[in-house]
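re: that chain from earlier
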Amino acid sequence: MRRTLVGTYPVYASSATPWLMRLMGARIGRNVEISTVETIPHLTVVEDGAFLADHSMAAVPRVGRGWVHIGSTVIGRGSFVGNSAIVGPDRDLPDDALVAVLGVSPHRPPPGTSWLGRSPTAIPRVKVAADAAATFAPPRRLKAARWAVELCRFVPAFIVGWLDIAVVYFLATVYMGASGQGSDPLRGVVVATVASLPAAVAAALIASAMPVLFKWALVGEFVPQDRPLFSSFVWRNELMDAFVEVLAVPSLIRIGLGSPVLTMWARWMGVEIGRNAWVESWWLPETDLVSIADNATVNRGTVLQTHLFHDRVMTMQPVRLDEGATLGPNSFMLPGSSLGPCATVRPGSLVLREDAVPGHSDWSGNPIRAVQDAPAATATGDTATRARARADHLDADERPQTGPIPVVATSTPAREEPTS
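^ sequence. v structure.
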């Protein structure tokens, strides 16, 4: 399954994904949306109207104490499995349930419930009002229009092939000219080998520049807004992401992590990056909504998630790291969240939607909680509740909630190594 995410990437997060999963043995219902799921297909059942987001996992083996446990998984009707969320073996998700980003499904949850965190905690859920014709029950004309846009996802693969052919043709021409039409093959090999470096660099630069051009041509500047799943903006955004993942990432961006190359490319894509910032992730989905201040650190495997897909409506909000802030490896920041000056979020943590992490403080966990040995700080949003709980030496889960917790169901683009 993981290898198919590379070889058949343009097919994922599209109308064709359910068909691909059926071919591999999964039982997939009608009107199902699947992004880059990892699963054992013939042990997986996804019922009508379900949504599996980027790098979600279903029926993945559980390994521990010298044993490998393999079991089946059923995702119920209308249920949602968020980015990097897990519905493990022999765990079934009932109808209309939700497992939030980086979350784990509990054992036998009731229908219609929503769950957050690695130690699953029930959270409130507010439905997003939207036209069913643009979300769960689109007419055939919208489905056909989506297919037409998604067929263009193969264009980046064609460009890769053309660039490869151009490099081979150039080096063959260099070889033939240097070797005197083959009379001095050793000299031809030496000259072609020397020429291969600038040829490869030129091809990588072209492959990395093309997604920048297509980004501005297809979607322009990202702004905070709401768009239903069946709208041309969402399809064009996914098409732009295919150009990034197929062209830019394999050629130059992956090897440029943490270097000025990635910083410069991200700025061209619209990301606001300050001086001396360390950026080691390309998962910055809606680039114009990402702000990374001077001396801030974005570590490897992190996701600055700027959109949610709650009830199949794409809601976009900005994400910000202030000066000197640090986001630890493999951590998530959800839309509307921010890290204050010199704030630290430790590895594998989840910053909830619209959380404002105060400056000069230390946070960790899924979802984040103030680290006890860190300096006292005042937070806002749901983070404030957890900070006050720490100050009183109580677990936040034991205290009454002062307001609804934001739903953190996401789908992204986000895309390799941990994810619309």
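The first helix runs from residue 4 to 7.
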